[in-house]
Every structure is written in C-alpha cells, then in structure tokens.
Amino acid sequence: MPAARESLLDAAYSALTGWPWSAVRMVDVAAAAGVSRQTLYNEFGSKDGLARALVRREADGYLAGVERALVTPADPRERLTAAAEWTVSAARDNVLVKAMLTGCWSERLPSPTLSAVPSSSAVPAQRRADGPLPSPGDFVAIVRDRAATLLSAPGTPRADTAELARACELVIRLALSCVAAPPDRGGVAGLARGALPRHLA
After folding, report:
1. In whole angstroms, what is the distance from residue 66 CA to residue 73 CA?
2. Domain residue extents for the chain
3. Which of the residue ranges 88-92, 94-98, 108-112 would you say has the lowest mean pLDDT?
4. Are 26 and 41 within 8 A, CB to CB?
5. Is the dihedral of CA 28, 33, 39, 40 positive or negative?
6. C-alpha span between 90 and 118 (Å, rounded)
7. What is the pLDDT of residues 158-186, one digit of tens each?
8. Domain 2-200 is of which CATH architecture?
9. pLDDT at 201
10. Is 144 buried (19+), middle (13-18) or exposed (0-12) by CB count in 10 A?
11. Does residue 49 sit in helix, strand or coil?
12. Of 20, 39, 152, 171, which has fewest CB within 10 angstroms of its CB?
C-alpha cells in the first residue's frame, strides 16, 4: 500500500509540525491520512515503527537532494557548493533532517534508536526502516563517498581520488557547521567556494 503509506507519513510529519511527538496520536494520524487505524498499524506496527519510517523517509529525501545537486551540469566546485547549499536548506526547512545531521534531538521530536530493531513486518519498506538509521557521522561518510564517486573521472589517479574525497568531506562538514551556526554574508556558498581547491574546477 505505497500510497497509503506515503499519506500516513505525510500526516505524521504534518502532525509533528504542530505537536510534540509525544502528543501525536496514532488515531489522529490515521484520520488525517483518510485510512483506518488498523491500516496504520498494519503498515508500521507501532508508533515507534511510524517514527522510524518517518525518519528514514526524511533521510532518504535529504540524500536524494544531495544526489540532484551533485549531478547538475556544472564544474565539480559548483556541484559541491550546490550540495552544501542543499544541506543547509534542507536542515533549515525540515526539523527531522536537522536533528539527523546534528544529532540534536529535542523533546518535541521522535528519537528512534539508530541501531536496528527487531522487525516482523511483512512490509519491505518497514523492514528497511527498522534497520539501522544513519548517524551524523554516517551522513558525512555517505555524502563524501557519493560525491567523490560522482565527481571523479574514470582513470583518476589514486592520489587525486583521495584529495577529491577530502575536499568532499570538507564541504559537507562545512555545511554542517553552517546548520549549527548560520553564516552571514556570502552564506554557505561563499564559504564552500573559498575552501575548495581551485583545481577541482
């Protein structure tokens, strides 16, 4: 039931914008999505299962945005800069993305454990959500490795690949620092362009 699942996740996220997670009721999420409470429990198993699926979906959405930024037709410095801008924008606009990237979960948010939990769900998407969730360090590694792969040309010497990976990690860490302490003039783009080696262009 992919459509019902997405509707339920949308309803859960919408509820979270108005209420602390502890006050969000499963019956209200089901009603807002236009499905029965039983359908909600069939999809997610429990409120914790719903929380894990919601966090997983927001993590996937953030990573999909990074991917879009990295495949734009531009030079490598601009593509990394776009990924940094997306990171700051996504964290500003989505409280769950900000919490995942920084590890700072407020009492208003669900805070599912990062480690895997036992899953007996018949729903493949829920079994994935019940697996381990990325930590802030995992996000750095995922984005760094994906960026290095997408930006390196075939046959690039190993030393150049290592330097590219360091540049990618520098940019994602710089973006995360801007999530915690937003920059003034020039924003994250100015900082990223200034920090990246010119020969990446």
Report:
1. 14
2. 2-200
3. 108-112
4. yes
5. negative
6. 30
7. 667 888 899 999 999 999 999 989 888 77
8. Orthogonal Bundle (1.10)
9. 47
10. buried
11. helix
12. 20
